[in-house]
Amino acid sequence: MNISALLIIPMAFVCEFMDSSLGMGYGTILAPILLLMGYEPLQIVPAILMSEFVTGFSAAFFHHSLNNVDFRRGSRDTKVALALSVFSAIGVIIAVFLAVKLPLKVLKIWIGLIIIIMGIIILAMLNRVPRFTWRKILVLGSIASFNKGISGGGYGPLVMGGQILSGIGVKNAVGITSLAESVTCFVGILMYFFLKSKVDWTLAPWLMAGAILSVPFAAHTLKAIPEKKVKFIVAIAILILGVLAINKILNK
């Protein structure tokens, strides 16, 4: 095991703990750190997709078992997760096809602004429960998965924010995001296998090793925190990640 791997495992643990307890942060934080460590995008993005495919299903299982979310057959949470998965799959397929062909600076700034605006709205509506609508969930799911397939991050803040603003409970939204993101990542992996025979997967085992260890701790942490506090923390995290995303693009 080299020095780089020794650093990657705890980083993946911390980022996945945040992702599995708040529904966001893994790829959004980890991707730029790995870039700074000298890894190439086609090493980073597929490896993140692979590790989140595994941890997403694991997180969904633990959140369901602890009643953070209800994935029983026919439940609203199950229907939302399935709908997000379908629209997310479409978005990520388009993203992988375009990943090496389009200048996406403006798109990413726009996505960062959407994330910030959603964080502000969630804070403003902290004591209110918005009316549930499918349209907001599906539109944001498609946009989020497009960004995921291109950059490896940005899915969680958009999908979490979209669900909360669409009337989904914040703890339910975390579990739903984990499951839908796992399906999205699986589709992205298949597309990279199909389109990029020279993709480097050597980062994937180290990311999975660190990330999978954090999932049970994250699920129990979410269970223990009151819903309103989780909503506040999620709103602040969305704001921070949105600002970081825009700052990253503007300073390239």
Describe this entry's structure for a reader:
This protein is mainly α and 252 residues long. It has one domain (3-250). The protein is built from ten helices and no strands. It has helices at residues 3-22, 26-36, 41-65, 76-98, 105-124, 134-151, 155-165, 170-195, 204-224, 227-250. Helix 3 runs parallel beside helix 9 (204-224). The two termini are 32 Å apart.
Query: How is the biggest beta sheet arranged?
Result: none
Structural class: mainly alpha
- First-last Cα distance: 32 Å
Radius of gyration: 17 Å
Our count of domains comes out at: 1
What is the β-strand count?
0
Number of helices: 10
Average predicted local confidence, pLDDT: 82
